[in-house]
Structure formats: C-alpha cells, structure tokens
C-alpha cells in the first residue's frame, strides 16, 4: 500500500515529467497539495523533505518550495554508499571515470568555447611551472574538469563532479604515488598537453590516445 508521503513524491515527479513544472517553478502551497492529493499536511511536508534531499526541490523559508536541479550531492551519497556497501573496487571507479571522460572528449572537441580552451591552457602552464605537488594536483584536476565541462552535457558534468568527490575520498594521493616513478612524470604531463591540443584542434583521435595513455598510468598504479 502506497504511503501518503509517497503520493506527494510521485505527484511532483509526474508533474515534472509531464512538463507542468520546470526548473525555478514554485509548487502549490502545502495546504493546496494536501487538499488536491487528499493527504495530511504532515505527509506533504515529509514528501517535500524527501524531494529536497534528492535535490529536486529547494525549500525557501517564508517563500515556498521551488523546482531545482541540484543532484550532485545526491549522486555523491549514492556513489559513496555503493562503494562502501557493494565493495566497488578502485578500478571500477576509474573505469567509470574513463568512460565519462572519453565520451565528454568526443563532445568537447566540437563544443568547447575559446574561453574554456584558454582556461585549459592556463592550468596547463601552471601545472608545468608549479613547484608544490598539491598545487600541481589542483591544476591537473581542473584540466580534466574543463574537458568534461566543455562537453556541455549536464549529465556528464554532474556525474563527473560526484565521481571526483568519491575518488578524492577513497583514492587519495593517486597522482603522488604514480609520480614516485620519475619516468612517469613527463609522460603524464604530455598526456595533458595532448588532451588540450586535441580539444583546441578538434582532433578526437589525439584526445582519445591521450586519455588511453593517462589511464594506463592509473591502471598500472591500481594493479601494483
């Protein structure tokens, strides 16, 4: 038997899917929804609380409840629990990341803006000149994020952001450990140069080859 608060969740979900509500739209008041769905206002509040936790709603005190699309935190929680409960391996997480970046690259070579390319080049120059590894790591991550962002595909971007959070939590200092072998340093640096050049020159093959090389370093580390 469907619980009362589930009627609220299902109702809002259906309204969104049917195009009745979109991002930024305000939901009816709790009283109106309670009357419409024949449930208590307590059930309405519980349903709204669940939708807010999912990232579908933004509840603004004194103003009302609005449709939003902030699902990154929800994805982080889900991925973190999957990792912990299902025993997801580091390699599986890296393979998922590779799949996301590989697809993002094929889109970013067509959709990257001049500003995004310039920002990639800036972070590349900082990566090459920074003296501290924590600074280099920051610019390294930013380059990868910009490639995904340049795909202009929100599903890829949100999943990548969530996945990055999980990897940062569970696969700490991967870059440092990879670079313990000095001969990896220049090779890894070159993969980033080629990745940016691929986006700039709209060369999918060059970018795919760079990503393949980049993830060989990661897989070698994970398998060691």
From TrEMBL:
Instruction: List residues traversing the bilayer.
Output: none
> Which SMART domains does the record match to this protein?
FCD (SM00895), HTH_GNTR (SM00345)
* Sample GO molecular function, one term: DNA binding
Q: Does the keyword rRNA-binding apply?
A: no
**What single Pfam family name could you report for this chain, choosing any that match?**
FCD
The chain positions of domain HTH gntR-type read 2-70
**Would the keyword ATP-binding turn up in this protein's UniProt record?**
no
* Protein name, UniProt field: GntR family transcriptional repressor for pyruvate dehydrogenase complex
